[in-house]
């Protein structure tokens, strides 16, 4: 007998169809939930609109679901890219591909071109005696001078540079300047670019020529800055007004929540350059940024030499140099983040018609205190502060690790081998429990109860169970409360407590830290559960264009900041729009590769937030940490530590 599978479509019983439809609907709901969790925190951001000022836009705020609907930040980026960059052209369709300009560039092997030219007839003598002669002249850079000669006529048939001039009226070749632009956009300097040309057997550019082209590009940064932020701010204002169901006038000022954070060129607290960035929490787009710099290479070299050798000419030189000097701040590196915030907040109304009335901060600088002291929006408008949940939870891990280090110096061991010790893996888990306790509750009392419950749960033993603070019910994460709700005998703590802690040894050290990090004034700023993940992502984009281990001028950093913000706001495919602003030609490949990179980035984001992938990463990380700790113990303790031996 041949068995056949019952059909679940046509001719199938109604019950089978119903079950199939239920499975399909559950699968679609699961996939949509995964897609919406790409940036879950974005869907929780509600703009603060309206104030007592007369020129401020005021409207009733609908619920979060009405504001964003089913849109994620990826969809916002896709919509903004289609509007501002590609003009609504679908780069995946064949019809759209035909409308794009075909590129006229490519890497050519002139030996093959020479054989092709040899097969052609001379237009004068009609003989097949042509040959190609190419010459990369020192002053032409990547541009190649080609000459087609006829051995019979003994005169050149064709001679010309195989490159167009930049803006047609200059002596600069377009490909040389665009090569410098591409190098800077990819984070390459003059030396790295020459190394690339060396390995590709290309002529390359002299380092002075490279820096000359870069300086010409940097003169357009102010216009590029207005180009980037004007489109971004216009889109942010439109989104806020659209989802609040109100029309926003040109002169109306909008109050929004921003996440502000600073980043520095070099690690430590002695960097000459710092950057402050403000990101709108509703759309996830960067609305403003400012670069602070305390060093000018021209002043330190030419200026100092002129001051020592010709002091009478130094004053005139200094007056002429002030407009070009890259120093715009005098102070410590730690104060750069605060000073950049002053600049951004003070110009927000005049430049963007925005007020940043709520600040999401990481709490590692006095930006919030300084802003309320200067009162950039007047005496009547107070700036509120919210804490990044991730940074708050990191404080627990930092405090516990510092405590273990201090105790070790006094001869008290809190870590080490054995059950109930405060190991590095245990600290990592306690930090995760603390983070979950904040995120899973929406009021301060519940947060504090959950935080202390996570600690006492780890202290519990069969002889002294301490689960009074753990949530009750059959769905509780606590095995003890779950068993009681089901009228069962709880299992042994030895097997069911995943992070056991020795209360007798650790309680006196842990309780003061937990009480300090569960204070009401701190937890009240974490109620919304927001993070600064968008700022951290932007920082990584900035320094991928400007390496932290190399010197860079303020202009170079500003170029990296603006191009990174352009890509951060409108996606990787916005590179074509940036190149067009600087006067370079863009073709089919630039748009195609940009769209492909954007598509791959979205795919990677969706993959990273899947539950299975997230749980697998946690298991791999925990197993690696445990394995390293075991190796250290087998080797007799730490073998390397600052000042330990």
TrEMBL record:
One protein family per Pfam: Mutator
Boundaries of every Mutator-like transposase domain copy: 106-478
Residue numbers spanned by region Disordered: 1-28
Stretches of the chain forming a coiled coil according to its record: none
Residue spans of biased composition, Polar residues class: 1-10
UniProt-recorded name of the protein: Mutator-like transposase domain-containing protein
Organism, scientific name: Littorina saxatilis
């Amino acid at each position: 007998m041949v068995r056949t599978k019952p059909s679940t479509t046509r001719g199938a019983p109604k019950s089978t169809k119903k079950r199939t439809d239920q499975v399909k609907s559950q699968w679609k709901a699961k996939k949509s939930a995964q897609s919406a969790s790409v940036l879950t925190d974005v869907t929780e951001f509600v703009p603060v609109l309206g104030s007592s000022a007369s020129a401020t836009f005021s409207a009733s705020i609908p619920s979060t679901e009405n504001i964003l609907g089913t849109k994620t930040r990826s969809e916002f980026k896709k919509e903004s890219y289609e509007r501002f960059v590609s003009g609504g052209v679908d780069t995946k369709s064949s019809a759209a591909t035909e409308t794009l300009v075909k590129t006229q560039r490519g890497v050519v092997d002139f030996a093959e071109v020479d054989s092709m030219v040899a097969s052609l007839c001379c237009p004068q003598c009609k003989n097949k005696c042509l040959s190609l002669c190419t010459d990369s002249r020192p002053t032409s850079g990547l541009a190649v001078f080609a000459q087609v000669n006829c051995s019979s006529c003994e005169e050149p048939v064709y001679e010309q540079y195989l490159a167009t001039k930049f803006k047609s009226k200059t002596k600069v070749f377009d490909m040389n300047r665009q090569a410098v632009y591409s190098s800077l956009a990819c984070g390459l300097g003059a030396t790295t670019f020459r190394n690339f040309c060396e390995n590709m057997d290309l002529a390359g550019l002299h380092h002075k020529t490279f820096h000359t082209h870069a300086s010409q590009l940097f003169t357009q940064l102010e216009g590029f800055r207005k180009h980037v932020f004007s489109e971004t701010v216009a889109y942010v204002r439109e989104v806020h007004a659209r989802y609040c169901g109100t029309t926003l006038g040109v002169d109306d000022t909008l109050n929004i929540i921003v996440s502000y954070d600073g980043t520095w060129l070099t690690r430590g607290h002695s960097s000459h350059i710092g950057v402050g960035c403000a990101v709108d929490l509703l759309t996830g787009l960067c609305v403003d940024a400012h670069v602070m710099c305390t060093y000018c290479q021209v002043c330190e070299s030419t200026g100092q030499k002129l001051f020592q050798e010709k002091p009478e000419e130094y004053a005139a030189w200094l007056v002429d140099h002030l407009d070009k000097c890259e120093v715009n701040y005098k102070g410590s590196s730690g104060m750069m983040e605060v000073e950049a915030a002053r600049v951004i907040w003070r110009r927000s109304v005049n430049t963007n018609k925005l007020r940043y009335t709520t600040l999401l901060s990481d709490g590692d600088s006095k930006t919030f205190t300084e802003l309320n002291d200067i009162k950039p929006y007047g005496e009547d408008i107070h700036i509120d502060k919210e804490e990044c949940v991730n940074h708050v939870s990191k404080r627990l891990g930092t405090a516990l690790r510092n405590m273990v280090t201090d105790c070790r110096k006094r001869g008290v061991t809190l870590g080490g081998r054995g059950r109930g010790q405060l190991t590095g893996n245990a600290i990592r888990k306690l930090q995760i429990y603390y983070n979950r306790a904040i995120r899973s509750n929406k009021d301060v009392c519940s947060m504090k109860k959950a935080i202390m419950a996570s600690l006492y749960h780890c202290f519990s033993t069969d002889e002294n169970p301490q689960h009074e603070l753990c949530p009750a019910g059959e769905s509780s994460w606590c095995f003890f409360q779950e068993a009681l709700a089901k009228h069962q005998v709880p299992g042994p703590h030895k097997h069911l407590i995943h992070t056991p802690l020795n209360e007798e040894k650790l309680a006196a050290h842990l309780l003061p830290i937990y009480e300090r990090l569960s204070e009401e004034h701190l937890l009240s700023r974490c109620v919304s559960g927001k993070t600064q993940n968008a700022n951290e992502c932007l920082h990584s984009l900035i320094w991928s264009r400007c390496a932290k281990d190399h010197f860079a001028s303020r202009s170079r950093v500003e170029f990296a900041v603006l191009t990174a913000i352009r890509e951060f706001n409108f996606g990787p495919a916005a590179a074509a729009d940036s190149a067009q602003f600087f006067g370079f030609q863009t073709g089919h490949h630039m748009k195609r590769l940009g769209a492909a990179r954007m598509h791959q980035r979205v795919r990677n984001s969706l993959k990273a937030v899947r539950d299975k992938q997230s749980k697998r990463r946690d298991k791999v990380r925990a197993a690696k940490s445990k394995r390293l700790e075991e190796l250290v113990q087998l080797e007799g303790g730490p073998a390397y530590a600052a000042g330990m031996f």
